[in-house]
Amino acid sequence: MRWGREKLMKILYVATISNTINAFLIPHIELLLKQGHQVDIACNVNREIDSKLINRGCKVFDVPFQRSPLKKENYGAYKGVREIIKSGKYDIVHTHTPVASTCVRLACRNIENIKVLYTAHGFHFFKGAPIKNWLLYYPIEKWLSKYTDVLITINQEDYARAKSKFKAKKVKYVPGVGLDTEKFKRVKVDKNVKRKVLGVPDDAFVILSVGELNKNKNHETIIKAIAKLENPNIYYVICGVGPLREYLEGLAQEYHISGNVKFLGYRTDIAEICKASDVFAFPSKREGLGLAALEAMASGLPLVTSNIHGITDYSVNGKTGYTCNPSDVSGFATALSELAGDPQRSIRIGLNNITTVGRYDIYSVLSKLKDVYGMDQEDSLTVKRGAQ
Fold first, then answer.
1. Among 82, 155, 375, 384, fewest CB within 10 Å belongs to which?
2. Distances (CA, A) of 102 to 119, 223, 231, 239, 366
3. In this structure, are residues 254 and 364 in contact, taking their beta carbons and an 8 Å threshold?
4. What distances in angstroms separate CA 188 from CA 161, 203, 254, 344, one per listed residue?
5. Which residues sit opposite 40 in a β-bridge?
6. DSSP of 204-234, one letter per residue?
7. Domain locations in the chain?
8. Measured between alpha carbons, how far is 153 from 102 in angstroms, rounded to an integer?
9. Nearest to 328 by CA among 309, 346, 305
């Protein structure tokens, strides 16, 4: 069956927590609303859903998904989302994040006339991942793929594996969730004034990281690399909150660089802070893609990143900056030292990054999603129902 403008549809967007909806998926939902389709949302509402979606008629269901897959509350979440899907008579369920997507695909197994789309925001199993990730997550994802009409991956390693190993009816590659690159390009900042606000000297070499303070984001490698350089003119600015703040503050103190490491907490002025910085450090141990690094590229910053899953789609050693093994403190130190010692090269790399990041722009991503949904030239939604 082909659905055009004569068949407006009812679509349910599902994510484990509401932050995922607010941070990444609003433009995706607005794309569907613009065509007249009804879109509802199911998630653990840890923060209120953005009012622009509520005002456009999106109904929100609070489902007690837990980010840890072993939490007993997820069984209740499974039953809850199954009832929402059955009673709501949805045509499409588009699910995101591992826990919610496990519950959704189990719930939809025996429901007729429904199509399941799953966007994997980075599998937990990848080349170099801990063996426990492969033992836990890989069998589950492989099994559930047979209950998936369209599996959408956001990096090339996941796409290749899903295409060759999984049983989804279709596997599609979409380059991330989309980034408003123009927002970062057009920001104008008085660098010296901004640095004064941040507590950083005018002539400092400023390294920026953005992300939750947790083990995966791996800020400690950069702190150790900076300490190794013994350069009092290098400052490290960290934006984000998380459980490791006290540990990282203690680490900076232990290495006698606490005055050069600034913990800024949660910030809404990331674009401005990017423009006041010299390089973006992204030493994560795992990333589906890494929106923060793409934002830094759009701001014209060179990157110093880990060389792992997702990040390597866009971070190319010698072109976008430098890539290192996540635990290679000496490698990160050398990369930062070379950029600090050659400002003109840093500028050239940054200008290249502004061009390179274009393929991850929100308009590029929405164009890919139109293809996934089967929108025709008039932007009608023309997906076919998938037998479950």
1. 384
2. 12, 37, 48, 31, 25
3. no
4. 42, 19, 37, 20
5. 12
6. -EEEEEES-SSTTT-HHHHHHHHHHHT-TTE
7. 10-178+361-373, 181-359
8. 16
9. 305
pLDDT, one tens digit per residue, over 55-79 is 999 999 999 999 888 899 999 999 9
Instruction: Quote the pLDDT of residue 233.
Output: 97
Transcribe 56-74 into DSSP letters.
TT--EEE----SSTT-THH
Helix (H) or strand (E) holding 280: strand 279-282
Same fold, 10-178+361-373 and 181-359: yes
CA–CA gap between residue 336 and residue 316 (Å, rounded): 15
Query: Rounded CA gap, 313 and 247, in Å?
Result: 31
User: Which residues, 6 or more positions from 37, have their beta carbon under 8 angstroms from its beta carbon?
Assistant: 8, 9, 10, 11, 381
- Range name among 70-74, 325-329, 376-380 with the lowest pLDDT average: 376-380
pLDDT tens track for 113-127: 999 999 999 999 999
Whether 138 shows a pLDDT value over 70: the answer reads yes
In this structure, which topology does domain 10-178+361-373 adopt according to CATH? Rossmann fold (3.40.50)
What CATH architecture is 181-359? 3-Layer(aba) Sandwich (3.40)
Residue 256: phi and psi, rounded to 5, are 60, 35
Confidence at 110, pLDDT banded by 50, 70, 90: confident
pTM for the model: 0.90
Taking every pair of Cα atoms in the chain, the longest distance, rounded to a whole number of angstroms, is: 67
- Say how many CA atoms lie within 13 Å of 295 toward its Cβ: 21
**Mean pLDDT for the chain?**
93
Residue 375: per-residue pLDDT = 59
Structure token digits, residue 251: 């680490």
